[in-house]
Specification:
- With 359 residues, this protein is mostly beta strands.
- It has one domain: Jelly Rolls, CATH 2.60.120.
- A hairpin with a 5-residue loop joins strand 6 and strand 7.
- It is globular, with a radius of gyration of 21 Å.
- The mean pLDDT is 96.
Amino acid sequence: MAKYRHATLLPSESATTAGTKTIDIDVTDPISMLEIIMKATSAGTAQTAHPAANVSKIEIVDGSTVMASLSGKELQARAFYNTKCMPDNYIADVTGVMAYASFPYFFGRKLWDPSLAFDPAKFKNPQLKITHNYRVADTAASAATLEVYAHMFDEKKISPIGFLRATEHYTYTCAAEGSVETIDLPRDLPIRQMIIHGTGTNYFPWQVANKVKIEENGGAKVPYDFSTSAWLKWLKQAYGRVEEPAILSLSDTPRHVYPAATFTIHTHPITETVTNIVSIESSAPTNPFTLDVTAADEASAVISGYCPHYAFTIPFGDQQDMDDWYDVSPLGSLKMKVTAGSATTNGTVQVVLEQLKKY
């Protein structure tokens, strides 16, 4: 008998009307992972954002209770830092070719985690809400589809103690370089990891969120205090590179390319015409970077780098050991201080928390 099941919650349907799609989670077996896929057919115009930007919010709710809430980019970054593999994306700006982005929401530490899963029976009316607009990444996209799947336990009977709750806890626009934003962190649930997005067009993540400091009980203890650029050197070794395929229309006028990677970006486009030469804007490209070619042509490429969607993680302890995560309940106060970098008001910071929510 099959121990697991792959269920369709939303068959592929047209998504050319921007809005919020609400899907009842009307299954009974525990869910290990939800997978959302958004596709948009390119009009051959230059990219204006990464395909993941077409999904601005993904929520899991039970009535008025929000059990998860992230943007598409935040959910992709979380998936990368949980699996060390970028969700399946395809960057396309060639007429008639579909660009797409996938958004996996893992309820456990991995796929088929028997201890942590989403149990619909624990809730009255669980729903998935997806806010989308297919013309964010390509303002002239001609068609789009949306589909949702659930990776579920079937014959294998489990008794999960809870699930991983991921939410955008805080967001703000940075101020002057060296200014400090103080953020109150919740103390109700154990925190498995925190993911910080230092988002700034044409900037690196550390130029937005330059330093991070976490203080317990008014500074009586400081468990984390680091410069972001130094922290990223460790993350590069621990998590590896983000990689995405792309097919691009190029010309002798530079065109923007928006990959997920935002740090140490590398790409080696191959044009259809042997004699064409492709140039990149600089040896240390930011996001977006620009490409041009000696004569109009199409090119395929693999784009790689670090910090998907400007994100870097702070993993609290052994990510596989629930007893090793950050137990914040005994604390009287918990604050994070983020120092702004040279991007100043051109940068925004989003703070995502992944917490253990028990039933």
